[in-house]
Amino acid sequence: MTPRHKLLLVTALACAALVPLSAAPAHAAKGMEVAVQDDSVFVIQLPRPGYRAKGLKLATQMNVSWIRANVNWNYVTLKYKRSKKEPKKIVYNWTGYDALIDAAAKKGINVQLALTGPAPAWATGNHKIGPDRIKATPFKHFAQAAAEHFAGRVHRYSIWNEPNHRSWISPIKSQAKIYRGLYIAGYSAIKKADPDAQVLIGETSPFQIGRGSHINAQSPLKFLRGITCANASYGKAKSCGTLKTDGYAHHPYDFDHKPNYRYPGKDNVTLGVLGRLESALFKLKKAKLLTTPTGGTPSVYLTEYGYFGSGRRGLSRSKQGSYLVQAFKIAQKDPHVKQMLQYLFVYPGSRYAFFDTSIATRKATPTLAFKKLAAWAKTAAKAGQIAVATPKR
Fold first, then answer.
1. How far is CA 19 from each of CA 78, 264, 348, rounded to the nearest angstrom?
2. How would you classify the pairing of strands 243-244 and 110-116?
3. pLDDT tens across 27-76, in order?
4. Count of alpha carbons within 13 Å of 348, Cβ hemisphere only?
5. How far apart are the first and last CA of the chain?
6. Total tally of structural domains belonging to the chain
7. pTM higher than 0.90, yes or no?
8. Residue 158, Cβ density class (10 Å: 0-12 exposed, 13-18 middle, ≥19 buried)
9. What percent of the chain has pLDDT over 90?
10. Is residue 209 part of a domain?
11. Which domain covers residue 357, as residue numbers?
């Protein structure tokens, strides 16, 4: 389990066709969504009650129109999670998500949910809570329950979180096959319960971690070829059937370089080499391996991004803010990108400071990084370059 996975797990438990980049038009994309995620603040209200309201205040200052939250399958099953046999009836705990959705709606902000693990014991290959050989049928039941409960209030879901990382799906050699099964099951369940809801595929981490027999994460494009049954050229390797999706979600982190840095490795995808992913999606659409419901190329949703504000990789707040503004500008100018998300708002506390990508203090006071990003968003909103939330009156 990686440090980042520990942070995500703890916070959750406590809770139109595209063309290749080279052919892209030069004008900026209109209406890109500015999004944020901080489950500890928005779902479970850490460090204390009332922090959801503080987070939403920050969100409005930054022209946020979407909030992403991870729905931890293991957590919402409560007392049932250790059962080795799937219960016939489960009473799910949606409390924190319901509260977030209702509070955000008053601000005109949408909530998108990532249905993810760890999986409860009955849904894994080793019958232990975790990421081992997750079973598609139980996940379908979970996805259906979520979509039925949130129908009409949640309009976008994604399937799993960083499925190309072994902390979320294992073993590595079976990740693609397992995830394909989970995605197909989740997509069909959500569309049946709420036909108008969007379902995103991917939520991939940006690059390979480790080598040889010690790989902790496989590169996102290798993983993408695996789940779509594509060969190295993105043609059909075997008959698996076409996958449909409303968009591809990806986490283009690169903590050690400027946003436009060209990260090495043809199958790795950080923000500076986003064209690799866009080209792959175009080729998969052409090969009829991955398309939108209308037969187009999936748009890109950048559903986690950020820079460290403290620790070994920490930047000064000035540089952190400058890098974030540069990154959001790059995303906004790319007509294929529909959303860019800042991961973490509030400092997570000393216990979890090893993954501090926050842009506000523990008291929810804006830092210089926040102020720079909010100033950019204000200007972009006035220019019609980003989507704007419309509060209820």
1. 45, 23, 39
2. unpaired
3. 334 599 999 999 999 999 999 999 999 999 999 999 999 999 999 999 99
4. 25
5. 45
6. 1
7. yes
8. buried
9. 87
10. yes
11. 3-16+35-382
Which 3-state string (H, E, C) describes the chain?
A: CCHHHHHHHHHHHCCCCCCCHHHCCCCCCCCEEEEEECHHHHCCCCCCCCHHHHHHHHHHHCCCCEEEEEEEHHHHCHHHCCCCCCCCCCCCCCHHHHHHHHHHHHCCCEEEEEEECCECHHHCCCCCCECECCCHHHHHHHHHHHHHHHCCCCCEEEECCCCCECCCCECHHHHHHHHHHHHHHHHHHHHHHCCCCEEEEEEECCCCECCHHHCCECCHHHHHHHHHCECCCCCECCCCCCEECCCEEECCCCCCCCCCCCCCCCCCCCHHHCHHHHHHHHHHHHCCCEECCCCCCCCEEECCCCCCCCCCCCCCHHHHHHHHHHHHHHHHHCCCEEEEEEECCECCCHHHHHHCCCCECCCCCECHHHHHHHHHHHHHHHCCCECCCCCCC
231-283 per-position pLDDT tens digit: 999 998 877 999 999 999 999 999 999 999 999 999 999 999 999 999 999 99
Q: Which amino acid is at 239?
A: S
Residue 214, in any domain of the structure: yes
Please give the average per-residue pLDDT across 159-176, as a whole number.
98
CATH code (residue 357): 3.20.20.80
Q: Indicate whether 226 belongs to any domain.
A: yes
Residues linked to residue 32 through DSSP beta bridges, in sequence order: 386
Which residues, including other chains, have CB under 8 Å from residue 209's CB and lie 6 or more apart? 165, 215, 216, 217
Q: Is residue 212 part of a domain?
A: yes
Q: Among residues 386, 302, 298, 311, which one has the least CA distance to residue 347?
A: 311
